[in-house]
Structure formats: C-alpha cells, structure tokens
Amino acid sequence: MQSKRGRLDRFIIKNLQVSARQVQLMLAKNQIWVDGHLAKDRGLLIDEFSQICVNGDTLQQNQPTYIMLHKPIGVVSATKDKQHKTVIDCLATSGLTVSETNIDTLHIVGRLDLNTSGLLLLTNDGRWSSALMSPNKKVKKVYWVTLKNPLTNEYISAFKKGMYFSYEDITTLPAELEILSEYVAQVTLMEGRYHQIKRMFGRFRNPVLALHRVSVGHIVLDNHLAVGQARGLTLDEIALKA
Hints:
Layout: E1 6-7, H1 8-16, H2 20-28, E2 32-34, E3 37-38, E4 45-46, E5 52-54, E6 57-60, E7 66-71, H3 87-92, H4 100-103, E8 107-109, E9 116-123, H5 126-133, E10 141-147, H6 153-161, E11 164-165, E12 170-171, E13 176-181, E14 184-189, H7 196-202, E15 208-216, E16 219-220, E17 230-232, H8 235-238
Parallel strand pairs: 9-15
Antiparallel strand pairs: 1-4, 2-3, 2-5, 5-6, 7-9, 7-17, 8-9, 10-14, 10-15, 11-12, 13-14, 15-16
C-alpha cells in the first residue's frame, strides 16, 4: 500500500471547498501551517501524517501506527472476512489501545496463511511497509517448520540451490534450512511465493504440520507476547535497517 502523497493546495481545496486563488491568499496571510512550520509554497508535498492547520483550525493530525501481532492459527490475514476471525478482530481483544479511526487505516505487512502462526506486522504507513517488503531489499523472513517425516541433510542442499516451480515458471531464491530436531527445521526465505515453504517440502513428500514465523528482517517476535496479543513496535524496530 502506497503512502498518500499530494500537493498542499489540492488538499486544502478539497477539504475546505475553496478555490486555488483563496488558497494563495491564505498563504499570503500566513494562515497555513504544516508540521508546525508556516507554509509558503502551495505545491508543498504532504502525506497522511502531515499535520495541517488553517487559520487556527486543525484539518489533519494523523499519527503513524506500527503494530506487532502474535497471530494465532485459524485467523485470516485480512481486515474483513465473513467466515473467519481476522487479525483486526485480534487487535480488538489484544489489550492494545488502538482507536477505531486508526484501526480503519491499518494494512497488513506480509500476510500469513490461515493455519500459519507467528509474527504479523500491521501499519498505516504505506511508505514504511513498501520499503520493508520491497523485493529489492531481499528482507529475510524466518520460520519454524514442523514436519511429518524426519529431516536429512539432503534438505539443506536442496533449499540452498532453490527450486523450480513450473506453474509460475520461476526458480526460488536460495533459502537457508537449519535442522533444529528430527522433525523441526528453521527456514529463512528472502521472498514469499504462494505456499512456498509447504511446496518446497512437498518436493520431499514431507507434509508440513505446523508453520510459525519468527521474524521479518530485524523485527523478531516478542517471546513475551502471548498468542493473539499485540504491542506497538519500538523505535529501533520501526527503523529501516540496511
């Protein structure tokens, strides 16, 4: 989801139902303030988080929101769903204080399947989520995978080489697989193809019994966060790392 950037004059024309000439007069009379500074340029670029005041009245004062949710199994990564509980429903019972207005603006950063648990990020900052999930960034996503059949070292080399999927005519990027126990592996991906982990283990005819996301980039699921609970991200977590 992209950030809503636009010109200052167009924002004021739309919100106050005034003409472009009236906006110019407001600027000349020092009546428009953006982020605490007197505005002089009608073409100034603003976004949904720019604080805009005209003649003492606040037209916009949105705050960016960044949330970590410990997603339960059986919850859909959607804001609305007629059949299943959604991650937005989780926020309502998570104990996290999020206003209804803010909830309506949230979107999901990197969805998880219905039966996948773990770290899920939500925000209303489109520029942040786009930067975090950009394919060019090759952000690492770490999962714990529980399998039906025992693991062998053959899995490690196969994941590292990447796998060809004829349906999409693509070869996956090299992935890291670490065997944690006989039936549990840690998998690190730099992409998120459709059901990618399940399909990669499917090459070995080894069904995935449980899938849990541990981290996205430098953001790691808080191990003090109970299933279904959420918290705001820290400043260090919000910071986009190289």
